[in-house]
Amino acid sequence: MIRGSEMMKISRRDFLKWSVAAAVSLKVDLDIDRLNTVLAAETDPPVIWLNGASCSGCTLSTLNVTNPTTIDDVLLNKVSLKYTTTLMTTVGESAVQILDQAANQYTGEFILVVEGAIPTAENGYYCVIGELNGQPITMMKAILKYGPMAKYIVSAGTCSSFGGVPAAAPNTTSAVSVKSLLSGKTKNPIINLPGCPVHPTVLIQTLLDLILIGTPSLDMSNRPTKYYRTMIHHVCPRITTPKVSQPGIYGCYMEIGCKGPMTNNVCPSFKWNNGNGWCVEVDHPCIGCANASFPTNPLTSEKC
User: Fold this and answer.
1) What distance in Å separates the CA atoms of residue 268 and residue 254, rounded to the nearest whole number?
2) What predicted TM-score, i.e. pTM, was given to this entire model?
3) Does the active-site annotation cover 196?
4) Which CATH architecture fits 230-304?
5) Among 60, 94, 302, 304, which residue is least crowded by beta carbons within 10 Å?
């Protein structure tokens, strides 16, 4: 009998080849062009996705991507995703072995996506992501090990980019951003994609850009300039409407705490829920979730 953990050790590429052979022997019609595209994806820089102190909201956001393509097309044809605890079926030490093997096999080639902040108090034991050879692996240890091994590091969401909710006061776990933890420990590019959650188009298109082109143009906060160049307020369709005193009323919310005048993000142009709306469009002030100081967002401390 083959145990489940052993069955999962077959590679994606080998499984696809086996599927082709099985289909041919059974005389099943195949879309050869599609299969060739899927196999070709194995030659691209693979992606390893680690989850730290987070709500998995950035993963869920990514699964809802519709532009530039859908998530099934991304995973089958565009990106070779080697490890992600949220989506993979393998669990326990077998999963961590896959992580370690992939990182070692593709050292200097893979893209490391990090979701969530990294707790550093108590040697990082506030966030244990698995065990390897019977020893617990903390998120802090994983980032310190695999970060320098990656070709690119993508901080998906505000928590990994700036600390976000896990690093908010009193921050008893001493959670920090990826960039803070790896400061002076790697020369590899760290691309911040803030947002709570990150916009799915921003994340997927950034991964595709890294695979096809390389490091994008970044601002002083390590954010791609093509997504974080413009203040939301400057392109808000309500910028010329009367200022109102409460949410739910059509108008500009600047006088009731709207963070649009200090937030750079794509919400007014890309929108959310398959392009159907965004915070201000549904009569709620922008909460500034892509800001470095989120979730507190004091007007005097914004650093974006």
Assistant:
1) 15
2) 0.84
3) yes
4) Irregular (4.10)
5) 60
